[in-house]
Amino acid sequence: MDPSSDNAELNTFDSPVADVLIKLSPRKGTLLGAVVLLTLGAFLITFTPETFAHFGLDWVAVIKLVGLAMVATGSYVGFRKLPTKGAG
Fold first, then answer.
1. What is the number of structural domains in the chain?
2. Are 42 and 64 in contact (CB under 8 A)?
């Protein structure tokens, strides 16, 4: 008996695989709202200080926070959870 084959058997395991199909039919207004919020929020987050330099005010931080709120709201409306780092 080959000792390497015993070692290979010790390092392998069977993991369960769930084949699940989830079919949801969201309302069109909810879907449209989530897409609009995510799109506009992502657009607002991309502004730079040079964008509003001609106004003489630093509105970039406020606009980025509004964009962040729109992305978080759109994510919650679309996926029923907030965007977070990590699994779960």
1. 1
2. no
User: Which has the higher per-residue pLDDT, 36 or 81?
Assistant: 36
Cα(31)–Cα(28) distance, integer angstroms: 5
The residue segments making up the domain with residue 44 are 26-79
**Contact in structure between 68 and 45 (CB atoms under 8 Å):** yes
| 27-61 confidence digits (pLDDT tens) | 788 888 999 999 999 999 998 888 777 766 678 88
Crossing angle for the helix pair 28-45 and 60-79, nearest 10 degrees?
150
Whether 8 is covered by a domain: the verdict is no
In a domain, 14, yes or no: no
pTM strictly above 0.70: no
Q: Within a domain: residue 12?
A: no
Decide: 28 and 36 in contact? Cβ < 8 Å: no
